[in-house]
Amino acid sequence: MRRLRVFLSAAVTVCTFLRGIEVSILGLSAASIHETSGQTQTTALSSATSTSLKSHLPRFILENVKEKSAQLLLERALTPRPVDDDEVLDETTEAERCKRYNLRYNGRKTRRRIFYGSLIADDSWATIAISALEHYGMLHSVAFVEGDRTQMRYERKIRFFPESDDLQLLQSGIYGPNTKVTVDYYLNEQEWIQGLARENHQRSVLFKRWRENGMQHDDIGYIADVDEMFTRDFLRAMQICEVKEFDDHNNCKGSIKVESNSAVFEGGPECLTSVRCLRPDLIVGECIEGIGDPTHRPIAPRFPEGRFKPGFMALDEDFGPLWWAVDFRMTQGNSYGKVGSFVAGYHVHNFFPNELALRKKYKTLDILSRMQWKSHWKISKKISNL
């Protein structure tokens, strides 16, 4: 019964995905290029917003997206519509929403802004569309970072390069009529940057983009993989409820990070697993490196791949260190949501169109991910028949 309730909850969310209502789309982005330099020799290419939607995108979808399910999701994502839950705040509705997650509503009149960040590579369009539909109109901005190598330093072709159809589709308004979407490139040939170290350094580019997008200390940083997402209802709660990780974190020394006890779907929406994923993650801007005030903050010792060494919270009696992008993923937070009641997030894992795409993923990722291949072998066979 528990799994049935969760599946029905997911089905309701999918129904929410498929609502199509009329309104104009802001447009898509045309790319401009600039370079940055630093210790990791990173090059960033960013995209500025344009004003017209390319008429050839529907044809691009038909010619390049072979899965019917992905075509349907993208068709819905491209449908112009208002953000239908962005109405004037109703205190009764918000109080009930907060109560669902054991939070309080204290009369807040404005929603917190959310700045989203994720790595992106060969994610399927079905996965991207699901993310876009769930987040539609909720995010201040969406920042992606794409690398030219995998974790194990296999070369890969840049997919979302300037003026590409993939980039134009990503920036076509699928994340919302007023949501800015950017893609930065991470190019680093240093040999020691591999495995999780490469992933962690690549994510650090997100903070620079958030600063450029105007993130302030009271805004929320949201780091995920494309296939990880909070539910829409939970994100609305995070924007309006009294959340101790945002409002009472004791100068970043107390509980700082919000994470989701997410339901995991493996390979497709019909396969709800017993595994739970404690991602994605939220942290208030005040505690983020480059956003929060560094005055009086201790500098935490870190391992080579970037994560905190033990004891980082005991460095100063009054102030905690500012957190890096790696800390969103590698440091424990406070988990919200309960599978079987009010799920706070989903992980739509390995929603690839065929077995070859799945094999490629596990061949080119780090050794820990490759060890999972054996357990996913039977699932990959099922995917090839979808």
Give a brief rundown of this model.
It contains 14 helices and 13 strands. The protein has 386 residues and is of the alpha/beta class. The strands form 3 sheets. A 7-stranded mixed beta sheet has the order 5-4-3-6-11-8-12.
Spatially, the strands of the biggest sheet line up as: 5-4-3-6-11-8-12
How helix-rich are the residues, as a percent range?
25-40%
The Rg value, from CA coordinates, equals: 20 Å
H-E string: HEEHHHEHEHEHHEEHHEEEEHEEHHH
Structural class: alpha/beta
* Largest sheet entry: 7 strands, mixed
Query: Total strand count, please?
Result: 13
Walk me through this protein's architecture.
- The structure is a single chain.
- It is built from 14 helices and 13 strands.
- By secondary structure, it is of the alpha/beta class.
- The strands form three sheets. The chain has a seven-stranded mixed β-sheet. A four-stranded mixed β-sheet has the order 7-13-9-10. It has a two-stranded antiparallel ribbon with strand order 1-2.
- Helix 5 (125-135) links the parallel strand 3 and strand 4 (141-147).
- Helix 3 runs parallel beside helix 5 (125-135) and helix 12 (355-364) packs antiparallel against helix 14.
- Residues 1-54 and 367-386 have low confidence and may be disordered.
Write the layout of secondary structure elements.
Blueprint: H1 2-17, E1 29-33, E2 45-49, H2 57-64, H3 68-77, H4 91-100, E3 114-119, H5 125-135, E4 141-147, H6 165-170, E5 180-186, H7 196-203, H8 205-212, E6 220-223, E7 228-230, H9 232-240, H10 244-247, E8 258-260, E9 262-266, E10 272-277, E11 281-284, H11 325-330, E12 334-336, E13 345-349, H12 355-364, H13 367-370, H14 373-383
Parallel strand pairs: 3-4, 3-6, 4-5, 8-12, 9-13
Antiparallel strand pairs: 1-2, 6-11, 7-13, 8-11, 9-10
